Here is the input.
Amino acid sequence: MRGRRKFIGLMSGTSCDGVDAALVEIDGSGLEMRVQFVAHRHVDYAEPFRNALLAVMAPAKTRTEDLAGLNVQLGEEFATCARQLMEQAGVRADQLAAIGSHGQTICHMPDGDDHHPHCTYQIGESAIIAAQTGATVVADFRVADLAVGGQGAPLVPWTDYILFRSDVRPRIVQNIGGIANLTYLPPGGGPENTIAFDTGPGCMVIDTIIRRLTQRKHRFDPQGLYASRGKPDMSCVEKMMQLPFFRQPPPKSAGREQFGRSFVSGMRQLMSGRGLDKYDMLATGTMLTARSIAHAYKTHVGIDLDDVEVILYGGGAHNKTLVGMLQAELPETEFKTVEDFAIPLQAKECVSFAMLAAACIDGVPANLPQVTGASRPAILGKIVRV
Here is the structure.
């Protein structure tokens, strides 16, 4: 039985708005670990740096020197956020068991195409983080699952099982980040009974629309304020819902390759000439997220939703218009957030990657093969020691 240890988790999601860091204390190991949240820190990216990151995200034409430079710069950004959290919490490097860094995904092609193998790629140099924090770093979690035939995503369902499983009630843990993904935990089930997959766009479409409509004045729709002024074009939403991704059964995962700039350009073209103002367009993008999440529950989870408890997290959980639309789509379902379980909305994924770092240090496989499509369990992550 492992004693109490401190870990930091670092995350930059598909919204690419900055670095989040969470400090946790972990007792035990593997499925028996008990996790206590301690502190959270967020550091925004400067707009020029964020734009540089977005410019190298697939599909893109990227110079190798630009990519190499961003890998180092992003490692420095991650290290800065981690050091600030350590100072905030009064924790020294020698008191940390490890830092788990997800990095920033710049390419995720789980199915590959005619010209590329299935692949995933995250940057944010872990050696820089280790050198600048003085702590052991675990990073590059996704490729171990990919190497045994998986999609490399989603990886948090193993941690969702540990944090939120219940013996008496079915639960869906719903992330609404840039991409939305769910973890279904049947009551009394084991990790092998867990269902998890990406449902489609979370805030990615919403954020892209508002950035274009406001000439980059806003990165996101604050609490869904602007979408609340519009009326969604349901015919457009239904047209988008005919896309193969939404009909595709799990395992499946997504990224900017499916729901980034090209997707939004096509969606805006579909909405043009229909008399929609900018608020209507934003409301339509918001409804697409709500409808696609509800569709996933009804089509790919296949359970009675009357008794399900949905636990929300991620930036989209702050969007009151989006959450209201989702509740209207699923009127029989009870909604909570991870804050009801003493974890801040923006810290949950960081907590998960701190847990995955602990699993790697302990030599515990932490992928769920039925979720990712992997041929077997795998130990996730690469360790960089100081």
Remarks:
- Residues 71 and 214 are 30 Å apart (CA to CA).
- The chain has a mean pLDDT of 93.
- The first strand starts at residue 5 and ends at 12.
- Residues 157-341 form a domain with the Nucleotidyltransferase; domain 5 fold (CATH 3.30.420.40).
